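=== RUN LOG ===
request id: a7f3
mode: sequence -> structure
chains: 1
length: 115
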Amino acid sequence: MKILQEVTDWDVPNHIYFTNDSKDKIYAYVRASGKQVERFKTPMKFKTTGRKFKEVPNIFGYSVDDKPEGRTWTVAGSRGDSYTVSENNGEWNCTCAGWKFRGACKHVTELQAKI
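=== RESULT ===
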């Protein structure tokens, strides 16, 4: 889980967001004017495009179980990074940047071919 404070320069207040490691799902947030964590019933899609964030420590003590249901695999990326690929009822997901931006990646494709 990553805790991101928005630092985008615009005319709306910037909040603190609790996201998964790939920053494409949001679990909770803290309003700019508050100190209380506002939780969502289910994770929501989160877009970071055109916005700026800095990672901050978790002073709120909030945690989330970010382990997907179904099957999971840890795969190696071409540059030595490791990613988590998951499948739940035919819905695939990967923690790599390719999946985040395109909704497709070679990690999922290669794993689907093996299974």
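=== NOTES ===
Residues 106-114 form the longest helix (9 residues).
The longest strand covers residues 37-45.
=== END ===
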